[in-house]
Amino acid sequence: MATLSPQSQQRIQKQVREVVTSMSPSAVGIELALSVLLGLASRAQGDAGRTPGGEVMAAGSLVKRIERTNYLITGLAGVLGALFLPADRALGLLVGALIGSVNFSLTTSITGKWIGSLARGDSGKRGFFLIPKMAGLVVVIAAAIYFLPIDPIFLAIGFSVFFVSICIESARQVSDGPDETEASTDQNHG
């Protein structure tokens, strides 16, 4: 299967920079975002795409590990919350963690398909699916606060589970070095 060519990577990076800077006045972290987005593109293409330094492979596997960690922490938050917190706080923690985990998965899926379509030379219109997804997120959070007997503070704490997952998995990747998939791919290429 084909990998992303350097020209495709540059074209994607340019288009993503334009989108990110138009959405946010602060361009802090664009390079990290590009690395993760290129990983999503390789995941969306279903190939073992990688830059010469292997960043795409690492970013794609990092996103998958973050998603798994999100759901693991969500389950852990539900169990520990049920054991040690009052019902409204435990439910808020669990519902917030579920919403945050599903939101992260949807965002990575939409972004991966968007960047994958850019890599194939299609139009970048798939990125606009992020707007209704965000509107849906606001509706889901408002409905949860309105209809469920939950503590909104613990909903917010639970929602931030993906920050914890990103920190854990990023630290793990830095401390562990390349994962086995990357090492086996390196052996296959030389």
Key words describing this protein structure:
single chain, 190 residues, mainly alpha, flat, disordered C terminus
Characterization of the model:
By secondary structure, the protein is an all-alpha fold. It has one domain. The protein has eight helices and no strands. Helix 3 (55-84) packs antiparallel against helix 4. The longest helix is centred in the middle third of the chain and has 33 residues, at 87-119. The chain starts with 5 loop residues before the first helix and ends with a helix. The model is unreliable at 23-35, 44-57 and 181-190 (pLDDT under 50).
Largest sheet: none
Succession of helices and strands: HHHHHHHH
Query: On the 0-100 scale, what is the average pLDDT?
Result: 74
Number of helices: 8
Shape designation: flat
Give the uncertain stretches in residue-range form. 23-35, 44-57, 181-190
Structural class: mainly alpha
Helix % is: over 70%
Strand share of the residues?
Answer: under 5%
Number of domains: 1
Please give the radius of gyration in angstroms. 18 Å
How many β-strand stretches? 0
How far is the N terminus from the C terminus? 17 Å
